[in-house]
Queue: 3 jobs
Job 1
Amino acid sequence: MKLLSVTIPCYNSEAYMRNCIHSLLAGGEEVEIIIVDDGSSDGTGAIADEYAQKYPTIVKAVHQENGGHGEAVNAGLRNATGLYFKVVDSDDWVSISAYKEILKTLNQLAGGRPSVDMLISNFVYEKEGAKRKKVMSYRSAFPQDRVFTWDDVKFLHKGQYILMHSVIYRTKLLRECGLELPKHTFYVDNIFVYHPLPYVKYLYYLDVNFYRYYIGRQDQSVNEKVMIGRIDQQIKVNKLMIDDYKLTDSRQVPNKKLRHYMKNYLEIIMVISSIIAIRSGTEENLQKKYELWKYLKKKDRKLYYELKWGILGRTMNLPGKSGRKISETAYKIANRFVGFN
């Protein structure tokens, strides 16, 4: 069994995937790199085969009809033999020095009791043209150098979210929790992180800047214009997250701190869906925003009121054109601080 399986979902990625693969090859024989060619029409498949032939004990090439980012992750999980599982997008890469620390830590944790379900590390926004690289760090929230539970987690402030870039899950846990991402849908990385959380009992945080998250391509899924064009997919993911758990029911998510965190996570996804609808400037998309909040109200009335009357919810639901202007201003300030697109 490999220590770590890393899946690289690829769709027409020939221009940048080599950089990603090379950074991951530094893990050597302990790592399994699964390159998933998701129905590409360029040289992606040939590059995947090239690396699989050159590094047959490390690299697997999987070719499939186009199913979208989520189905590529699903394929990676189906083919994974590693004890732990990580997703690295083809235009991103990892810091080699931090990578070695990650593998050293996973080796120490492997086979231990209790089994660590999720390892968390920092990630860096590699935003094109930005003079200052923003680091998403969790040192203020998580204990260091020891296994801990949700009860040991300190306060996670607004904007300090556990994203796909920051997590490594135990492979068996992802299978046991029934993780299956929807096909032909963007933004499913939120489901990848969110759905397994109630199954996670034991965590470990390593304070290294491991994942390098590139932002700068015009066709990137987090580009604002692209997000507006794909608003239906953003809302679909948002609704699937609403459906996943009733967060006001302690039987579904027993741990109070985790339940609070998951509410905050769902809140930020509601805000992103709302602001994209507002920024689009169309009445049709504004109606989709209203319908989304009604959907939440129907599914969980108590949570609806909690989120809508929170600071972020109120900002996203101010009435009229003047209210939407305030919402957009709040978004611009937040985006300047975080720099996510």
Job 2
Amino acid sequence: MRKSHPIRRVVLAGAATVSGIVLLLSLKPGTDPASASAAGGAAPQATAQAQESAQGGAQGATGTATGDAVDTQYGAVQVRITFVNNKITKAETVQQPKGGQSDQITGNAVPKLNAAVLVKQSAQIDTVSGATYTSDGYKKSLQSAIDKGNAAAAAGASSPDPSSPASSGSAGNAQAAAPKTVTGAVSQTQYGPVQVRITVANGKITKAEAVQRPTGGQSDQISGNAVPKLNQEAVAAGNADIDAVSGATYTSVGYKQSLQSALDQAGG
């Protein structure tokens, strides 16, 4: 039987070893999915968080602010504003000169001043002709309200940390107390029907108006004088326990009855 030569066995063994090394080197290293996720996924996640943070920071302050009462030659003027995302959405007076000719002057001037605020978004509004004192007092109180609103926004009073439990509770309460408008039942009076509509937010009357009131003849003048006062009193008092306007007893009684009906529907 023929024996294998020793040198030949050594050569064959060496060739096999070299072939094995070549095969190992030709294999590509595998990619670790966890490593790839950690390396490539971190940047998009951080970017998304930054975008979310930027969007949250873009939201402005929301709330109400009441300016200081400013005394004028004919009486005090005090303005309250409502702002949403740093934009004034409503302006109104909680105090204004009244009695005698002042009723007519403020009845004409205040709605114009309120409208001008929404356009200008500042206290740089024009004085209403024939109502200089009221206009000046209005602008000073308005500026005071704006300053208070800005201070609250800077302090973060209207933008609490959304991650805190207190903030979550507040958000739930704000949603539950969303502004709503309610119209009271029609109250029949000797001179015609009276019906009141109110807007309620956070348990407070923010607006009151008469959608029906006695009209025709002298009723136009009486209602025109009485209703704005009743509206103002309803907002200030927050309930139907308001004084009757002198010379408009029937209209006042009907107004209060319809107002109470609206409050009952709104939950008190």
Job 3
Amino acid sequence: MRTERKPTRLDRVFARLDREPERPAHVDMPRMSRHRMVLFGAALVFYLAIVWAVLITSWLVRLDWQVMFFRPYQQWPEIHAFVDYYVVLGQRGPTAVMVAAWLGWRSWRQHTLRPLLALGVSLLLLNVTVGAAKYGMGRLGPHYATEIGSNEMWLGGDIFPSGHTANAVVTWGILAYLASTPRARRWLSALSAVTSLGVGLSTVYIGTHWLSDVVLGWVAGLLILLALPWFEPVIARAETRIFALRARWRTPREGTAKAGPLGRPVVVKSLPDRADTAPEPVPTGRPASRSPAYLAPGPHTTRAERSPVTPAGSRRPQHAERHPRGTTSATRP
């Protein structure tokens, strides 16, 4: 007795991918609930507390200097090659391309632009908020520190908060934000949190960031993800307008072929020499006799009276004794 093979998890994944593309109707849009508002407020307070602790050169700045003098890249040199590759997960170019490719395929399959638009809005918020904080506070990195124990603020730097960490939080966290099921959202949230923290600690290991830079960058990325539900109406309106423009562009224009110039009416005039006569009725049956054919003026001969003509270049000799049709020829001996 032959039994059917039980489909594996990989078979179910490919079966799901082979389905006809459809626009998801069961996905719940994230809302700015009370729980989310509490998290956003707590993260904002924590963000301001870190900035204040660095500004007043508190214990957090002393911890930064202790970690810098510890020099992790000298303590564990065997993982230096791995960290150099792992830190790429926080760079804007490679991560944005990978995530945009995945979300673009998902948008095409589901006939919606929301994943790509959400990614664009999150990256725009990241550039505005983190970029403004970086250049506004102007903190120097460990490699360019000028005075031991100082906070290195307002000296023209651009490393506070950590852009690598914030970019990792936003780029990988947007996958959890756009997840279709609560289970997938939980797993992707944990994965993005671990990945972004690993990217931040990699920059501390290399020595390009202070420890406080990494913590502030992680909180800055979290604030952007928590604030995304406020921009969902903007994303929905942008998607509606883009689809409307596409439908308008695809619809063929009516009345493109006109007899006269564009914008000018065409006036049809009747001929003055021609009298307006009623059209003659068209007979339904076949006429009994055909009307005689029109002949040009001049003498005409019948076809039988015409002399045969040999075309030029023909090898057939002329027949002078050929008689025209309709006459009796002489009897051959």
